[in-house]
Amino acid sequence: MYAIAFDLGTTTLAASLVELSSGRLCAMHGSLNPQRSFGADVVARLDAAVHDPSAASAMTGLVRAELGRLAQSLLQQAGVGEKTVRLAAVAGNPAMQHLLLGWPVETLVRPPFRPRQTTGLTIAAAELDWAFCEQVYLFPQPGGFVGGDTVAFLFGCQQQAPSSPALYLDMGTNGEMALDDGQTLWATSAAAGPAFEGGNLSCGMAALRGAISDLSLDDDRLQTSVLGGGRPLGICGSAVIRLVAALRRKGIIDRSGRLLTPAEVSSNLATRLMERAGELVFVLHRDAQGQVALTQGDIRQLQLAKGAVRAGLDVLLERARIHCDALQDLILTGSFGAVLEPQDLKTVGIFSEEMVEKCRFVSEGALAGVERFVLHPEGVPAVESLAARCRVVPLSGTPLFEQKFLEQIDFPA
Q1: What is the CA radius of gyration of the chain?
Q2: Half-sphere exposure of residue 286, counting CA atoms within 13 Å on the CB side?
């Protein structure tokens, strides 16, 4: 017998097939969230759903069909039939889970920003128009912007027994984060936008074939790695952060985030700086079919995203009255396309030196938590108990967050 785990992300979807008797991971698959045609982030999609019921219905149908397609692909990869699937489990942020269920989203866009149901939910798969299993479990949603994906990430990390105080960060479109002080899980979400996953950037793309997934800038020579080989079509989130950090260390980007002009650069990297459509860009690749370039606007998008995330972390630490020096563990995850280097996160200003020393990366954190759930003998009560420990800290309209955000826009000196 098998179970299917889903990570219902705003930008990307991930799914895996798990054999229940052995715990063996039999297949994995992922794709872009088809709802992106209604907006790159949660706020845009919620706005579309509130103002147009047909848009909400369309987003529900799109994501149900795509998750169903991923499930069928997993079964084909493993060579097993639908009748062997006992359970499917889904973790996503509250907006994604509401849209999947076809629930109204008005409570998510107006104070007090609460989901329709905060506890987990078990429903018949037929309610989602799925025929590949009988039951579906949806993870608890502690708050309007702290959802099942955060709970799943935390649940997956528990088997590694992190030492408290521990900080958890999922650097995706919504920048979910939690701080465990040993008793309470202080949790929040910073509207980072899709920049960390390659979205909203002129050169950005998800970690799919053709994306630059890694790069190095040594002796003024740029070397890139492209997923699947061939010519690059864009750059994924991990490589964007790697590139901006490298350019910052080389002095090609100043502290305010400004790209220097070719005349200001004495090295051979000046040849990669040029003006395009009235905007300064740094060219990564150029051929007869086009070019992949980081623009000044792309850097600004990353600054807004990293400023929001770091400000959110600072607010959590202050609310829990914990200094970053006291952290015993810092666990990072996200759909970047590659492991992020903690030093790069320090260079762009997301982590302090103390955080870098405690940081470790977990691949597909939310999906790993869903996989642990389907294998856990007491999965539902264990997940519900964990979610009940969460205390949601709102950031919107909070003076402390606004102050920290403005402080964190620039890059560190």
Answers
A1: 21
A2: 10
Question: Which of these ranges, 43-52, 130-139, 163-172, has the smallest mean pLDDT?
Answer: 163-172
Q: What is the dihedral of CA 49, 50, 53, 59, to 10 degrees?
A: 10
Q: Are strands 211-218 and 221-226 parallel, antiparallel or unpaired?
A: antiparallel
Q: Are strands 329-333 and 176-180 parallel, antiparallel or unpaired?
A: unpaired
> Treating both helix axes as pointing N-terminal to C-terminal, what angle do 296-319 and 399-408 enclose, rounded to 10 degrees?
140
Q: What gap in Å lies between CA 90 and CA 102, rounded to an integer?
A: 15
Instruction: Name the pTM for this structure.
Output: 0.90
Find the farthest-apart pair of alpha carbons in the chain and give their distance in angstroms, rounded: 66
Does pLDDT of 403 surpass 70? yes
For residue 179, give every residue at least 6 positions away whose Cβ sits within 8 Å of its Cβ, in sequence order, or none: 165, 166, 167, 168, 185, 186, 187, 316, 317, 320, 322
Helix 365-375 to helix 148-158 angle (10° resolution) is 70
**Beta bridge partners of residue 360, listed in sequence order:** 331
Contact 191, 175 (CB under 8 A): yes
> Residues of the chain with pLDDT > 90: what percent?
78
